[in-house]
Write a structure and sequence with these properties.
heterodimer; A: about 110 residues; mainly beta; six-stranded mixed β-sheet; five-stranded antiparallel β-sheet; B: about 110 residues; seven-stranded mixed β-sheet
Chain lengths: ~110, ~110
């Protein structure tokens, strides 16, 4: 079983739609959680951290459910520019490295 | 401009021919690492370095070497490349290991080994 699992998609949604991605992680000792964004053939970039209390950044909302070991990303009012692959990232306690999911591809259509 | 640079960006080579991919950062970061990205597998860490002359294996170190003689540079060496090392490689750096999630990635090197 992969340490971090994501639905690869693609999620094809119209502009203005609300879309949500989930990600599950296998290590209950995982400490920190993040969402990265990766445009086609480009480098990944940190989108937002995921806090236990949930957090919001504009149209983006991230939530953590430790009991069920999943994190989610909600994008409201999708824009064409949101088209990208979204990577779920986990940092385990005591590790100096991150574990990346394989990503969920989002395609926002006009 | 703060950045991580990698060279070359694209490389096609043959099995067994030694190659080096360079990585350089201009942010005085202590922590640097190399990842490979393959379809369906996500980014996997190859090696990382906490500081000059301090390197350690990541999750998939076999077939790779690194060195950290200067703070800004962290080259990735493939002594005898094989086709299963065909991949997209990213170098990344962060100020410290504690803030590894705030790492800056280089633009990537697409390597094909025939």
């Amino acid at each position: 079983r992969k340490e971090v699992e994501q639905d690869p998609g693609p999620f094809n949604v119209p502009e203005g739609a609300t879309v949500a991605f989930n990600c599950t992680y296998s290590n209950s000792a995982s400490q920190s959680f993040f969402w990265y964004r990766q445009d086609c053939r480009k480098e990944p970039k940190l989108l937002m951290s995921v806090y236990s209390s949930g957090n919001e950044d504009g149209r983006f909302t991230a939530q953590l459910n430790r009991a069920s070991q999943y994190i989610s990303l909600l994008i409201r009012d999708s824009k064409l520019s949101d088209s990208a692959t979204y990577l779920c990232v986990v940092r385990d306690t005591g590790r100096r490295a991150l574990t990346f999911g394989s990503g969920t591809r989002l395609q926002v259509q006009p | 401009e703060a950045q991580v640079t990698q060279n070359p960006r694209y490389l096609i080579t043959v099995t067994g021919k030694k190659l080096t991919v360079t990585c350089s950062q201009n942010m005085n970061h202590e922590y640097m690492s190399w990842y490979r990205q393959d379809p369906g597998l996500g980014l996997r860490q190859i090696y990382y370095s906490m500081n000059v002359e301090v390197t350690d294996k990541g999750d998939v170190p076999e077939g790779y070497k690194v060195s950290r003689k200067e703070k800004r540079n962290f080259p990735l060496i493939l002594e005898s490349p094989s086709p299963n090392q065909t991949s997209l490689y990213f170098c990344a750096s962060s100020l410290y290991a504690a803030v590894v999630y705030e790492q800056y990635f280089g633009p990537g090197t697409r390597l094909t080994v025939t």
